[in-house]
Amino acid sequence: MTISVLVVDDHAMFRKGLRMMLDDEDDIQVVGEAGDGEEAIRLAGELLPDVIVMDITMPGTDGIEATRQIVSTLPRVKVIPLSIHSGKRFVQKMLRAGAAGYVLKESAPEELVHAVRAVHGDDIYLSPAISGVVVSEYVRLLNRSDSHDRDGGLSESDESIVRMIAEGHSVKEIAAARETSASKVQTARRRIIKALDLANVAELTEYARAQRWGEGETRVEMASSDSQSLRVSILGTKFHRPTVPSDFVSRDRLLQILDEACDVPLILVCAPAGYGKSMLVADWLAKHNERRAAWLSLSEGESDLRSFLTYVVAAVEGQFSGACPDTTSVLQAPGLPTVNVLADALGNDLDAIDEPFVLVLDDYHLIAGGDVHGLLENLLQHPPRPMRLVVITRHDPPFSLAALRGNRWLAELRQQDLRFTRDEVSEVLSQITGVTVGDAALSRLEQLMEGWIVGLQLVGMLIRNCDDKEAFVSQLQGGVHQVYDYLLHEVLGRQPLPFQNCLQKMSILDRFCAPLVEAVCQPSGDSPDSAMTGAHIIQRLRQENLFIVPLDAQECWFRYHQVFQNLLTQQLDNTHPASEVRGLHGRASDWFSQQGLIDEAIRHALAAGRSEQAAEIVANARLKTLTGDASYELERWLDLLPESIIGERPELLLARVWVLYFHLQFEEFSAVLDQLEPLIAERQLLDRASASAMRGEVDLFRGYLEFFAGNCADSLGHLHHAIERIPADHHAALSETDLVLGLASQMDGQREQALERLQSILANTHAMHPTRQIRAIATTVMIHMISAHLHDAIFAASRMKGIAADNGSIYAESWRDYMQGLIHLWQNQHAAAVGCLNKAVDRRYLLDSRAAMDAMAALALSYEMNGERFEAEATMRMLREFVDSLRLSADVFHSCEARLAIVRGNRPPVSRWLKSAAPADEAALIFWHEVPCVTRCRALLAEDSEASLREAELRLEAYVQTSEETHNTLNLIQALLLQSLVLHRSDRNAESAEALHRAVALAQPGDCILFFVELGEPMAELLHGFTADDAVAEFVDRLLAEIPKPDQQKDSELAEPTTEEDGSLIETLTNRERDTLELLAQRLYDKEIAKSMSVSVWTVKTHVKHIFEKLHVKNRREAVQKAKELGLVKE
C-alpha cells in the first residue's frame, strides 16, 4: 500500500528536494506541498494524507499550532516534525501538539524515509540525537510522584552541574569546565531548581551538599593539564563566608548593635588587622539563618571595575538566581559605560529583588580603584531598598560618610567598639588554653593587646607551653612586637626546618590548595621537603592552628591570615635570595597556567620577571577568549604586559586589534595592522601554518575597513582570502568574516549567493560552533533588512531568537530585539516595535555604540508616532546621556531631535540644526534607522525654501545613485520618497510620479510603510493621484489609511500646574509622574510600579528622578510627604 505524504516547509527548494527523495521510494507518494502552517491545515483537510512532514519555524502559523489543529480534527493523520531544533522546548511542544515523532534536518535522508514508514505503522519515531531529551523527561515525570527521590528526573548533564555546585564551583567555573557560556549554565540552574521544586540557588546548594553530590569527585583540579578550555578569572572561593568555629566567643553586645542597624543601608566595620571584624559579621549572619546574605572577599584584582561588578553580581545571584540581568548584560559589553550608568543598572537590579538581603564586602581596604568607590558612592545616594551593605575594612572608604550619617543611613563599628572587654579576654583565653588567669594578668593583656583578638590568640598559643602563666603574662612588655617575636621563635621556631621552609614559600600565594603547595614547594619531588605532601602540610597547619582560613565549604582552598602571611613574607625575603623567590613565582605561574587560571598565571609570571612567559599565556588564551565574546579579558591582560613585548609578538598585536575592533576604534587598528605585516612575514619563515592563520585575520580586518570605505571589490577580495586562511577552530574570526562577507556581497549585488552561503552554514548545525551560527543568522536578517524584504527579515529574526536562546547569548538576543524592533517600526507596528526596542535599549551597552544610538532613536520615533510624547522625550534624554557618557559624536542625537521636530511640525529646532555642519554621508552601507545625512534632506524639505529644496535635490540625486550602486533598497525607498516630494514642489510632476512609483514598488513586498506615514499629508496628496494595478493599489490604500489626517490631534499628557501653599509654581507633573507618585505612596518597589504601569524599571526610575526635581525633594519619603501636603495623593 502506498503511503501518501504532505510536505510542509517555507523553503520551496527544500520542499522540492524532499519531494524528489520521497517519491524515489516505491511505497511513498508526495501528494502535496505547503509553504506555511495555514496552507498545511487547508491541504490536510483536502488531501487527507497518511503522513505530514512538518517544519516548525514558519511565517504566520507555525508547525506546532498547525500540528495541534490537524491532529485534533484529523486524528488518523500522522505528523512528523522535521526541524533544525534539537532543544527540549521544541521537542516537548511538538509531541504535546500530537506529533508522532521527531526528526532532525541534520539526519541522514534514509532516516526520514524510515520515520515515515514507522509512524504510518502506528509506531513513534525519534531521531537518536533527541531521544535522550524525551526519555529524560519521561523519567522525570515517573519520579515526580516520589517525594523521596526528587533528583530522579535530572539529566546526566544537569547532574554534572549539580555535582559541581556541590563542590563549590562558581557559574563561570562550571561554564568553563563544560566549554559553554555562563548564561547557559544559569539557565540550566534555573531549570534544575524548578525540577527539584526548590526556591533558590542557596537551597539548591544546600540540597546538593546534603545529598552528597560532591563526594568522590576531584575538588581542586579545574582541568587536566592537556585541557584546551579557557578558565575565566572568577574564583568561587571568594563567596565563602568564614566558618564560625565551635569554640568561638560570641560578642553579644556587638551582635545587638548589628541587629539594631539592620534597617540602615550601610554598615561599616572598620578596624586594623586582627580585630575579628570578619568573624564578628560571620557570627552575626550565622545567628540569623533566615536572613539571605551574599558574602564577597575582595582582593586587589577587584580594583578593576568590571571584575568588581562581576563578583558582586555573582555573589548576589548565588542567593537570587538571575537577580541582576541588566548588570550582567552590561558586563558582557566590550567597553563599560560610566560609573553613574553602572550604578543605576546595579541599583535597578538590586531594587527589583523582592526580599531583604545582606551584601558583605570583606577586605574592602584592598580596593584601589576610584571607579569602584565611585560606583558604591552613587549606589548609596539612592540605596536599593532590599539591600543592607556591610563593608569590612581596615580604613575608611572614600565615601561621603558625613552625608550618610546625616541621613541616618550609616551604622559604624570601629576599633574602640571591637576592643575586647576584660570578660571577653578571659573567655577567649579560656577557650584557647582551657585555663583561666587572674585579674592582674587579664588587666595586663587588655592593656597590651588593646583588644586585638589575633594578639590574644597568639598569647593563648604561647601560654599553653608555660608552667607559670601569670608570670609569662607579667613579663610581656613589648606588646604586639614582642608577641611577633614569640611567634617566630617559640611557635614557628619549634617546627621542623623543611616545614618552616614550606610555610615561607607558600606566603607568595594569596590562596593555596594541596597540589599548588606541592608545585611551589617541591617541584622535583627530591627536595628535603619532599616527604611532606601538600595535603600533609595543610593538615599540619590546621592541627597547629597556624592562622589559615578555609575558602570553600569543602575546605580544599585556604589562605593565610594576613598578619601571618606578612610575617612569613618578611622571613622569606630575609632567608632566601631574590632569584629563588622569583623562581617560586615562576612555579606558581606554571601551575595556574596549566589549570587555565589566566589572571593568577600572568601575575605570578610577571612577579617572576618572566614577561615572555606572561605574553605566551595571553597568546595561548586569545582564541578561546574571543570565542567567548570576552575581548575585555584580553584588554585587561594586555594592559598587564610591557609594551615592548606586545610589539614583538604578532599574536598579541592581533589581540590588540580585536580589542580595538570591538571598541570601534577603526583608525587606530589600521595602524596596528600595518605594524603586523612585517612580523607575520618573519613568522612565515618559521611557522607557515600560524602565519597563514594570522594573515587570515588581517584579511578580515582589511576587508572590514574596505567595506566601510565603500570599496566593495577590494573588501570581497580580502574576505575571501580570510575564509581560506582562517583555521576552523578560530570561531570568532570566521563568524565576523561571515558577517562582513555577507554584507559586502549584498552591496555588490550578490544577495542570493550570500544568502545561499549563509544557509549552508546554518544547515550544518551539528558541526558549526554556536557563535558562527548566531552571526550567520544575524547576517541573514541584515541582508533582508537592507533589501527591504521585511517579512523574510522577521522570519529570520524569529530563527535567530531560537538559536540565541538555545545558546544563552544575551548579546545575540539584544541584536535580535534591536533588528526586529526596526522591522516592526518600518511596518508601522508601533506597539510591537516599542516592545522589542525597549528590550534592546535596556541592554544598550551590550550593543556597539552606533547600534545602541540607533535603537534609542528608533524607540523615540516609535513613541512619537504612537502619540506617547513623554516617553519619546524620556528616550531622547537617555540617548543624550548615553552619548555624553561615552563621549560619542552627537550627530545621531541631533539628527533624531530634528526628525522628531519635523514630525511635530516644530520648525525652529529644524532651522537651527540646518545651520550646523552637514553630517557625513553614511547612508549606503547598512540598515541604520537614523541616518543624519538623510534626515538632513527631510529638514531641507521642511524648510521649504528655494535654496533648501535645491540642496535637497542635489543630495537626494546622489543618495539615490549610491543606494542603487550598493543595492541598498531600504535607503533607496527613503531617498525616492523624499525626492518625489522635492520634485513635486518644483512642479516636476512627471519625475515626481516616477520616483514615487519606484518607491511604492520597492516598499510593497515587505510592507515598508513608516517612511510614507512619517511624511504625513504631503505624501498623502501624492498618493491620492497614484495609479497602479490591483496589488499595488491595495498597498496604497493601506498607506493612505495609516497616514494621519491634519485634524487628528495627539492627546496631551500634561496635567494642570500645581502650586505650593505660598503660591510658588511647582513644575508641571505629567500624568505618568502622577501615577508613579500614587504608587510610591503605596510603598511599592520599582519593579512592582513598572509592572503596574506596563513600563520598564528604567522608565520608573526616570519618573522618580523627575518627581524629585519638580517637587524639590531628595528622597521618596519626602516626595510622598510633600505630595500629600499639596493634595497630589490621598492621605
Automatic annotation (TrEMBL):
Domain Response regulatory: 4-120
Superkingdom assignment: Bacteria
InterPro entries: AAA_16 (IPR041664), CheY-like_superfamily (IPR011006), NreC/VraR/RcsB-like_REC (IPR058245), P-loop_NTPase (IPR027417), Sig_transdc_resp-reg_C-effctor (IPR016032), Sig_transdc_resp-reg_receiver (IPR001789), TPR-like_helical_dom_sf (IPR011990), TPR_MalT (IPR041617)
NADP listed as a keyword: no
A Pfam family per the record: GerE
PROSITE patterns found in the cross-reference section: HTH_LUXR_2, RESPONSE_REGULATORY
Residue ranges of every copy of the HTH luxR-type domain listed in the record: 1062-1127
Keyword Transcription regulation attributed: yes
Residues that bear 4-aspartylphosphate: D55
Keyword vocabulary terms for this entry: DNA-binding, Phosphoprotein, Transcription, Transcription regulation
The protein, known as: Transcriptional activator of maltose regulon, MalT
Organism classification: Bacteria, Pseudomonadati, Planctomycetota, Planctomycetia, Pirellulales
